[in-house]
């Protein structure tokens, strides 16, 4: 062209352009789900008429009122404390033992963006989660498209966006980071991109403890690759996957002088232990014996847990009928097992969202009226559950 004339930027390849167009529907579904979540937070703030950020967690830092503070409740307070104060040293551990339970990558990200932009840490946490949630939607869509096709991927991504536990994708929690990194890892495993898969798993294992299941998923994929194709390069994924987890545990050892500091935090400070599902099943038994609904913390949590177990039964059946790649199934069932085996966790929607292939199986295996009914019910449950989490203490996220 003429000297000095602006050059026309190259158009994206047909494949990339088609992918971007296909992502419009999943991203619109995610945007609509965020409207539902924020509307529930606004209603909660209007109904309560006071600072929703106060509770049995560290005081939220200043900045933002009403809706924004509702999104920093519960564990958000702990993540923000770590972001601002760091982890305790040797002489502070006993007084701040609870903070060791929270893995470092998400609070470090909050601190970094806060230092760069000057935005309040709470606002940064909410914005980071919401943006990472959008990335997670794109990645779960790409994962399903890779193994099942575009139509199933679009249905699955919409169900994921409107899943009742998806409220957490706009809270100051690390689940959005976990799901985005885990979905990237599984997608790269399916594509046999081993180094990338291992690095994505390392990011996830630096964000959440249940991401440790990705080590098993990488090992499964590597074992299959070595057995079928003698592809020894698959071992890169296995070697890199635990880097985040081991890095954090090593840091805690140096920082606190306790090599098992995280485990001590879980057992002593949070009173959590493995009971192989006894408590989870027991909650259902209590509800069956005395079926009633109230805003009492124990009663409503028992109801949520029971509904969650019903979802587990249905979604596991659909997952097995879907028959995704082994690594995907290993991850889903492993994260589910960790949640159900915990005395403290159970079948809560937030932890079921972390086992996202179970959610995706709904979109993959259902279509037509059954899919529409599932999506509509899920969206309604998201609205109700969001309000209860933001406006009461009756439901533990």
- Multimeric organization: single chain
Taken as a percent bin, the fraction of beta residues is under 5%
Number of strands: 0
What value does the Rg take, in angstroms? 21 Å
How would the global form be characterised? globular
Sheet/helix structural class: mainly alpha
How many helices does DSSP assign? 19
- Span of the ends, CA to CA: 59 Å
User: What share of the residues lie within helices?
Assistant: 55-70%
Unreliable parts: 1-6
Descriptive notes:
- The chain is built from 19 helices and no strands.
- 68% of the residues lie in helices and 0% in strands.
- It is mostly helical and 397 residues long.
- Helix 6 packs parallel to helix 8, helix 7 packs across helix 18 and helix 9 packs antiparallel against helix 10.
Describe how the helices and strands are arranged:
Blueprint: H1 14-22, H2 24-48, H3 67-70, H4 75-85, H5 105-117, H6 121-148, H7 150-162, H8 175-190, H9 194-205, H10 213-229, H11 235-240, H12 243-256, H13 261-269, H14 278-289, H15 297-322, H16 326-341, H17 349-354, H18 356-365, H19 368-391
Helix pairs in contact: 2-6, 2-7, 2-19, 4-5, 5-6, 6-7, 6-8, 7-18, 7-19, 8-9, 8-10, 9-10, 10-16, 14-15, 15-18
What's a concise summary of this model?
This protein has 397 residues and is mainly α. Helices cover 68% and strands 0% of the residues.
Keyphrases for this structure?
single chain, 397 residues, mainly alpha, 19 helices, 68% helix, globular, disordered N terminus
């Amino acid at each position: 062209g003429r000297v000095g004339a602006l050059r026309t930027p190259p158009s994206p390849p047909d494949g990339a352009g088609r992918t971007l167009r296909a992502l419009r529907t999943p991203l619109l579904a995610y945007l609509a789900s965020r409207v539902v979540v924020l509307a529930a937070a606004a209603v909660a703030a209007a109904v309560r008429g006071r600072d929703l950020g106060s509770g049995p967690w560290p005081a939220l830092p200043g900045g933002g009122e009403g809706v924004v503070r509702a999104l920093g409740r519960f564990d958000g307070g702990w993540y923000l404390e770590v972001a601002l104060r760091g982890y305790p040293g040797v002489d502070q551990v006993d007084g701040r033992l609870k903070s060791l339970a929270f893995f470092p990558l998400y609070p470090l990200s909050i601190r970094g963006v806060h230092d760069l932009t000057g935005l309040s840490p709470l606002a940064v946490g909410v914005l980071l989660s919401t943006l990472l949630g959008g990335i997670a939607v794109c990645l779960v869509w790409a994962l399903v498209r890779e193994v099942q096709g575009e139509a199933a991927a679009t249905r699955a991504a919409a169900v994921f966006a409107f899943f009742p536990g998806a409220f957490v994708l706009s809270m100051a929690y690390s689940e959005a980071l976990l799901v985005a990194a885990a979905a990237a890892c599984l997608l790269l495993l399916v594509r046999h991109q081993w180094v990338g898969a291992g690095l994505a798993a390392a990011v996830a294992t630096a964000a959440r403890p249940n991401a440790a299941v990705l080590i098993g998923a990488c090992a499964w994929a590597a074992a299959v690759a070595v057995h079928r194709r003698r592809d020894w390069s698959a071992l890169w994924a296995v070697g890199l996957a635990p880097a985040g987890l081991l890095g954090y545990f090593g840091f805690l050892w140096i920082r606190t002088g306790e090599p098992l500091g995280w485990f001590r935090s879980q057992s002593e400070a949070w009173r959590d232990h493995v009971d192989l599902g006894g408590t989870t099943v027991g909650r259902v038994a209590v509800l069956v014996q005395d079926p009633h609904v109230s805003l009492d913390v124990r009663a409503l949590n028992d109801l949520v847990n029971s509904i969650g177990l019903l979802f587990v039964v249905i979604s596991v059946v659909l997952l097995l009928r879907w028959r995704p790649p082994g690594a995907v199934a290993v991850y889903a069932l492993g994260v589910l097992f960790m949640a159900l085996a915990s005395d403290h966790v159970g079948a809560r929607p937030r932890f079921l969202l972390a086992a996202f292939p179970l959610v995706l199986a709904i979109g993959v295996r259902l279509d037509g009226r059954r899919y529409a009914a599932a999506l509509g019910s899920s969206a309604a449950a998201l609205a109700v559950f969001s309000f209860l989490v933001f406006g009461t203490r009756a439901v533990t996220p």
